[in-house]
Design goal:
The chain is of the alpha+beta class and 74 residues long. Helix content is 38%, strand content 12%. The protein is built from 3 helices and 3 strands.
Length: 74
Amino acid sequence: MSVKKVIKDNTEIVPMFKTVEQMSKLSGIGANKLRELVDNGEIEYIQNGNRRLLTERAIWDWYTRNCVQPVSKI
């Protein structure tokens, strides 16, 4: 008789690639805005059938390229 070991791991599996809708909920950027950015080539994505899959790193890359630093007037 063989004994099977069952290992319970409490870590949450988070997908590396997310759909536009999932990324919208995660990032706070609207789904339509994300689609617009993808269409304009401003955010990298992978096409899987009809779905466009994004990564968090692609969103942060776009953010660092487009963020506006506050200007303090003293």
